[in-house]
Specification:
Blueprint (H helix, E strand, L loop, with lengths): L2 H4 L1 H10 L21 E3 L13 E7 L5 H14 L3 E7 L2 H13 L6 E3 L6 H6 L3 E2 L7 H5 L12 E2 L2 E2 L1 E2 L9 E5 H6 L11 H15 L4 E3 L6 H14 L22 H15 L12 H9 L3 E6 L2 H9 L5 E4 L12 E3 L6 E4 L5 H13 L3 H8 L9 H5 L3 H13 E3 L3 H4 L4 H6 L7 H10 L6 H24 L22 H6 L2
Parallel strand pairs: 2-3, 10-11, 13-15
Antiparallel strand pairs: 1-3, 4-14, 5-14, 6-7, 8-14, 9-11, 9-12
Helix pairs in contact: 2-4, 8-10, 9-10, 9-19, 10-19
Organism: Paenibacillus sacheonensis
Family: Belongs to the bacterial solute-binding protein 1 family.
InterPro entries: Bact_solute-bd_prot1, SBP
């Protein structure tokens, strides 16, 4: 067995437990394949007279929203490096999780692939999934990235770089709204709703105006990660203190899923359900399918990430839409949308036979003169490369999204930065089901009429599972305790910066 096969146990267990806990991401990203099918791109036959050894570089991920730009990048790369043929496979997030687990277990992992959502890079490094990038990249390559890209506990493990973020971390829980449907419902498209009551009323009016042709809101309800992201980030805006860096409230060290802030979000979504404001296909479609139906004018609102902008502007050029912040409780905003530090994405397989060619691909992907520039120009995302966003961001909706994300979102503490050994706890943590996303999805579907009781039960179960994870990590030798997950100096209305880790008790 190779080292990846030997170390599959811990990572495999964690991956299977996280099947329904996909983030965004973007951190991270949360956007599945457009059509749910894998896409493989290979190069043309290389020049037989080429002196360099012919290499096939295998790459796998789920980044679908810029498929055409990625394919053009691959064509340009193979023209520039005729000895390298790129074999690119694109999957949905859920397909990727299952596929990469099988590939790693069988010793057939691609050369480059992302950290699966819901998993920690440090745990995968320990299990032998990835190798360091340091031998293949120089300081000039590292210097081109924005501050915070390479941090111990996120993209760096034991002082070595193992991964690079896909894009600048932005929340994926803002709302897009259809201005045309707003006008048809008698709403002002220049004054979108700001509170729960206003939002519910607007969705109801749009549904009534649609008379079965369009509805107030649509979601990709088949993807639990979308419910999970919305539940955590909207409730944090209401003061819950939840975020993607931990299953517990990092201000208190406790699970607070039955708090007033969380229950307020659930009550809002239950109200939207009772008003029949959800598109009837909501619970049976994926996020990309919901995105497509919104682009066709079948809903007034959708909760999604910035990656949708480039897709709509390309596929639905006549769509008149705006970007708005999530609504807040009628009593006002009490927190912020959590923004996590730049999260790991692409990494180099520990078993890659072509690490130098893989590193060359990364250098062109991030530092070349095409991909990052075209991605930002398309309106898909913001780059982690210095200067790209300022020079190439021209799409108005993307500018709006970026401004709102930074107005309503702030950096939250990351226990892995405060103490890298905290990763041992996350590796031991066994997620509780039904989780918060499943509970919100179940509330929308009508499976849970009373959401308060299961939220209270879930909080208790998470606290118990978290305590067990800390105990297990300590038993295995990790220098960590519960205090590493409490940041009493955290102000959710401000960014939690590097100096704040030093002053945390």
């Amino acid at each position: 067995m190779n080292k990846m096969q030997k170390g599959i146990g811990g990572a495999a267990a964690l991956l299977l437990l996280s099947q329904l806990v996909a983030c965004g991401d973007t951190s991270g990203n949360g956007n599945g394949s457009i059509d749910g099918a894998s896409v493989t791109t290979t190069g043309e036959k290389t020049n037989e007279g080429a002196k360099a050894e012919q290499v096939t570089l295998r790459i796998m991920d789920w980044s679908d929203s810029i498929k055409s730009v990625r394919e053009e990048f691959h064509r340009k790369f193979m023209e520039k490096h005729p000895n390298i043929k790129i074999e690119y496979t694109q999957l949905t997030i859920d397909q990727f999780k299952n596929t990469i687990l099988t590939a790693v277990k069988s010793g057939e992992a691609p050369d480059l692939f992302p950290v699966p959502t819901g998993m920690k890079l440090s745990a995968l490094v320990k299990d032998g999934w990835f190798q360091p990038l340091d031998p293949y990249i120089d300081q000039s390559f590292k210097d081109q990235f924005i501050d915070g890209t390479f941090q111990n506990g996120t993209t760096v493990v034991d002082g070595k770089i193992y991964s690079i973020p896909e894009a600048e971390a932005l929340p994926s829980s803002l709302l897009f709204y259809n201005k045309k449907l707003f006008r048809e419902a008698g709403l002002d498209p220049e004054n979108p709703p700001k509170t729960y009551s206003e939002f519910r009323e607007a969705a109801k009016k749009i549904t009534e105006a649609g008379k079965g042709k369009y509805y107030g809101i649509i979601e990709g309800g088949k993807q639990n990660n979308r419910w999970l992201t919305t539940a955590k980030e909207w409730s944090s805006l209401a003061g819950a203190g939840l975020n993607g860096n931990s299953p517990i409230d990092l201000a208190t060290g406790k699970a607070t899923y039955d708090s007033e802030a969380v229950q307020g979000v659930f009550s809002l979504f239950a109200g939207l359900r009772d008003d029949n404001s959800f598109h009837p296909n909501t619970m049976s479609i994926s996020a990309p399918e919901a995105r497509a139906l919104f682009g066709q004018g079948q809903a007034g609102f959708i909760v999604q990430g910035a990656w949708c902008i480039g897709v709509w502007n390309k596929d639905n050029p006549d769509l008149e839409y705006g970007v708005m912040a999530p609504p807040v409780p009628d009593s006002g905003r009490k927190g912020s949308i959590p923004i996590t530090s730049s999260q790991p994405w692409i990494g180099l397989s520990a078993d890659s036979k072509h690490p130098e060619e893989a590193a060359l691909y990364l250098k062109e992907y991030y530092g070349g003169d095409f991909f990052q520039q075209e991605r930002v120009k398309s309106g898909d995302a913001f780059s982690v490369v210095k200067g790209i966003n300022e020079k190439y961001s021209t799409v108005e909706q993307l500018k709006q999204y970026y401004a709102l994300a930074h107005e309503y979102g702030h950096l939250v503490p990351d226990p892995n930065i405060g103490n890298p050994e905290a990763s041992a706890v996350f590796a031991q943590y066994k997620d509780v089901h039904p989780d918060l996303g499943e509970l919100l999805g179940g509330t929308v579907s009508g499976a849970f009429k009373d959401f308060k009781t299961p939220l209270t039960a879930y909080s208790g179960q998470v606290d118990k599972a978290w305590t067990s994870a800390i105990d297990a990590a300590k038993k295995e030798g990790a220098n960590v305790d519960a205090s590493n997950f409490v940041f009493d100096n955290w102000d959710p209305m401000k960014d939690f910066l590097a100096e704040d880790y030093k002053s945390a008790k």
